[in-house]
Amino acid sequence: xxxxxxxxxxxxxxxLLLIGLSVTVMIDPYIRREHRRVMLIIAALLxxxxxxxxxxxxxxxxxxxxxxxxxxxIYGYSVRPAxxxxxxxxFGTKRRFWPFWTLVGVNALIYSTALFSGxxxxxxxxxxxxxxxxxxSCHIVSGILLFCLLWITIRAFxxxxxxxMWIPLLNAVLIIACVLMDSVFATNLRYPVTFLTVxxxxxxxxxxxxxxxxxxxxxxxxxxxxxxxxxxxTQIQPHFLFNALNTIRALYAKDPPMGDRILxxxxxxxxxxLETLNQTELIPIxxxxxxxxxxxxIETLRFPQIxxxxxxxxxxFSIPALTIQPLVxxxxxxxxxxxxxxxxxxxxxxxxxxxxxxxEDNGVGFDPTREAGDEESHIGxxxxxxxxxxxxxxxxxxxxxxxxxxDVTLLIPDAAEKEKGSKP
Length: 424
Prior knowledge:
Largest sheet: 5 strands, mixed
CATH topology of the largest domain: Rhopdopsin 7-helix transmembrane proteins
Radius of gyration: 33 Å
Order of helices and strands: HHHHEEHHHHEHEEHEEHEEH
Shape: elongated
CATH architecture of the largest domain: Up-down Bundle
Distance between the termini: 51 Å
CATH class of the largest domain: Mainly Alpha
């Protein structure tokens, strides 16, 4: 009865921790579905490890249960490294995990030899554990996997505060300390649950809490990025409308019939594209080119010395709304408007791994190193850069030389639309 009470006292806190962890994972709104599945599998495996420890503790007292203890030992040594590999899945299911699972498989095969050989471990006639020549294989494999897990963790969250990185590091130290405690006290103490099992359960709980904080922060960053995009869109749309209406007003002063025609075309365009203008998702590049052509047509009516040419070789991809138009507007207003013969060229082309959009002009140019300080002239460039990076993982390359013109290149990766659609 004393053994039963001691066993219950040893396993009850661990089971309560795992039950609480499982419930928390199930209701956690910040954890992804695949991560939730992995955490629940880990919790289930830890429950089986606790059961394995308890059964082994009870069967040790019966010398007729050598085979049963051997099977339990094989299971315990095989599962512990697998738990470490499962934790790696929390940092991306697209990684190549087969080398780690190969180590887990080799480790399991080594300990499976205990059924017919003592090369890994065996039970003597009194049912006591005897470690064989390869008896520390689990320790070595687990050490390698633990190091790899720490490396993946640090690499995945290398940009967070350094103080927070101590949590996974301390978890690793706790597991190593528990292994040493098992080795030191194994011959002097008899306990139903090993120090290593206790350490793994506690580390799992702390590791999940730490990961939860990272998931929450990632969610907050996504919300902030979306909010910034919406703010930028509300800033850009009135700016675009203001310039277009200003141009039409100027046309009425010079050529009222032309002003009527452009105003009608502009009204029809706004009616058909209002939904596109108000959204913060990616849109087909054809729609963005329609925005650009409208603006350019109106501006070239006001400034006939300016030409806008299009060399469209690739139009089967999507980009953030109001991406090309602000760059063309910037090229006209701050680049070629004062030129005798201003030329703005918009071109697209397919490239390996993505798409290239280029907006170049032969205008006055500027010093790119002073771009950030000239908010009025270059707010369009900055806004486009942020939307390209945040919404589709794209890149902007800016080249400009005073007196020779400006060249803005947007590189849109092929995976942009897929990644956008895969976010939870």
